[in-house]
UniProtKB/TrEMBL annotation:
Keywords: Antioxidant, Disulfide bond, Oxidoreductase, Peroxidase, Redox-active center. Homotrimer. It catalyses: N(6)-[(R)-dihydrolipoyl]-L-lysyl-[lipoyl-carrier protein] + a hydroperoxide = N(6)-[(R)-lipoyl]-L-lysyl-[lipoyl-carrier protein] + an alcohol + H2O. This is Alkyl hydroperoxide reductase AhpD. Disulfide bonds join C132-C135. GO terms for molecular function: disulfide oxidoreductase activity; hydroperoxide reductase activity; peroxiredoxin activity. Antioxidant protein with alkyl hydroperoxidase activity. Required for the reduction of the AhpC active site cysteine residues and for the regeneration of the AhpC enzyme activity. Belongs to the AhpD family. The gene is ahpD. Coiled coil: none annotated. The active site is at C132, C135.
Length: 177
């Protein structure tokens, strides 16, 4: 199991990450299988860690329908663009940028090929990794309006936090070895 491989690869100083990885992925009862593995895949991509993606992708693929697998990758892709764009727009002190048309194609958000709520959850988790407050607020509001409980939303950003931390730690260990 890829999860066990990642946990065993983590150094002793990252024991908390080992435990958290097991709890947010291995013992997650708050999310459906599709929500869980779509979030894991989207976050593994967003983490930019080749090792994390290599380890988690096969298990995600095995637990997702082909449509959900593609949609999770699409969420990571479109949010990689949107998070930079909207984070920059938000950080600029000139509010006039907020009035300009974005002019970026984001069709997949309107028609992701899976349940829109799941796609929003994956987009939210990727936005947590990429640190875009505007996107976090936007996706969280859509999720909450769709009836998604705060505990489910929090599970998504817990997965994002742990996957990102595991990637950072393992990539650092590879360089420092």
């Amino acid at each position: 199991m890829a999860l066990d491989e990642l946990k065993s690869a983590l150094p002793d100083y990252a024991k908390d990450l080992k435990l958290n990885l097991g709890s947010v992925i291995g013992n997650n009862e708050a999310l459906t299988q599709q929500q869980l593995w779509g979030t894991v895949l989207a976050c593994a991509i967003a983490s930019r860690s080749p090792r994390v993606l290599r380890e988690l992708e096969p298990e995600a693929k095995a637990n997702l329908s082909p449509e959900a697998y593609t949609a999770a990758k699409a969420a990571a892709a479109v949010m990689a663009m949107n998070n930079v764009f909207y984070r920059t727009r938000h950080l600029l002190s000139d509010p006039e940028y907020g009035t300009l048309r974005a002019g970026l194609r984001m069709n997949v958000i309107g028609n992701p090929g899976v349940d829109k709520t799941d796609f929003e959850l994956w987009s939210f988790a990727v936005s947590a990794i990429n640190g875009c407050g505007m996107c976090l607020d936007s996706h969280e509001q859509v999720l909450r309006k769709a009836g998604v409980e705060r505990e489910v939303v929090q599970e998504a950003f817990k997965i994002a936090a742990v996957v990102q931390a595991v990637g950072t730690t393992l990539d650092a260990e590879e360089v420092l070895a």
